[in-house]
Amino acid sequence: MTNRLxxxxxxxxxxxxxxxxxxxxxxxxxxxxxxxxxxxxxNAETATNALPFILFLALLGMIYIANRHLAExxxxxIDKISKQVKELSYDYKTTxxxxxxxxxxxxxxxxxxxxxxxxxxxxxxxxxxxxVQNEH
Length: 136
Fold this sequence. Notes:
The protein is an all-alpha fold. It has a domain at 28-108. The protein is built from four helices and no strands. The relative contact order is 0.03.
């Protein structure tokens, strides 16, 4: 291989060269965003001037998000408390019905039998007291 002619070597090199075509440079479309960032509509001075307004908008956004979270937490608390009120209402009604049942005459009589107290057979009598008028 070392005895090859220069012309043969040059021919092989030309065959091995890769032809690279350059892509044409695309022009950037002239719209609002490209003008905004390339032509200097927003520069350091305008960005610095707009910074307080942007921070104000960010603060409003954070307040809005916090308010939303607070409202959702309040709604969850209201739902939880209303369920508790419902359960307590059911307990109240059950206890009231139990008390009404246990305070009936027959139930009271059953419970007092174990203590040796019996129901009176005689009807109740009205006691009247005459007032004595002192004449002085």
